[in-house]
């Protein structure tokens, strides 16, 4: 039987208490439905609750860029180990016990050229992850399984 691809897991969790503050690595975070990650700068915003990127996609950006793209310097909250993070609004993923819904693609910021190096913003174009809103909250831990395609809840 051929090797099956490894199911993605949460590889890293980062948050910052305010804009421009350094991202801090966490082993686990609490996530509130309709609000986001407790303690993150975007907690309580209207739609930008959680950002998710894939290590696989960051490695692709690194090949274009010519050197490593550290996950914490992209300023995304969750880095998953593999797979392509959904980008179409309304698509859903499950991260551990948390259900997320795509809001939009996360555009790479010009500041990436300052923090990672000249050309990082361009290398991350179409590879910078996705912005999600939180539909069902809970705890997210490093190592939690990720379902990259989660069906919408059934309506009664």
User: What fraction of the residues are assigned to beta strands by DSSP?
Assistant: 25-35%
Order the strands across the largest sheet as they lie in space. 2-1-6-5-9-8-7-11
Tell me the structural class.
Answer: alpha+beta
What kind of sheet is the major sheet?
8 strands, mixed
* Helix and strand sequence: EEEEEHEEEHHEEE
Draw up the topology in text.
Blueprint: E1 10-15, E2 24-26, E3 28-32, E4 36-37, E5 50-54, H1 55-65, E6 78-80, E7 92-95, E8 98-105, H2 111-115, H3 120-124, E9 130-136, E10 138-141, E11 146-147
Parallel strand pairs: 5-6
Antiparallel strand pairs: 1-2, 1-6, 3-4, 3-10, 5-9, 7-8, 7-11, 8-9
Structure description:
The protein is of the alpha+beta class and 156 residues long. 13% of the residues lie in helices and 31% in strands. It is built from 3 helices and 11 strands, in the order βββββαβββααβββ. An 8-stranded mixed beta sheet has the order 2-1-6-5-9-8-7-11. α1 links the parallel β5 (50-54) and β6. The N and C termini lie far apart (41 Å). The model has no long low-confidence stretch (mean pLDDT 90).
């Amino acid at each position: 039987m051929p090797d099956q691809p490894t199911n993605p897991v949460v590889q890293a969790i980062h948050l910052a208490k305010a804009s421009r503050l350094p991202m801090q690595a966490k082993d686990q975070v609490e996530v509130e439905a309709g609000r986001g990650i407790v303690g993150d700068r975007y907690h309580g915003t209207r739609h930008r609750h959680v950002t998710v990127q894939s290590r696989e996609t960051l490695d692709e950006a690194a090949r274009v860029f010519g050197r490593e793209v550290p996950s914490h310097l992209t300023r995304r909250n969750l880095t998953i180990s593999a797979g392509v993070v959904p980008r179409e609004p309304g698509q859903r993923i499950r991260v551990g016990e948390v259900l997320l819904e795509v809001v939009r693609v996360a555009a790479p910021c010009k500041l990436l050229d300052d923090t990672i190096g000249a050309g990082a913003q361009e290398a991350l174009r179409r590879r910078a992850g996705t912005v999600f809103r939180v539909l069902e909250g809970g705890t997210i831990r490093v190592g939690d399984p990720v379902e990259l395609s989660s069906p919408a809840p059934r309506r009664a």
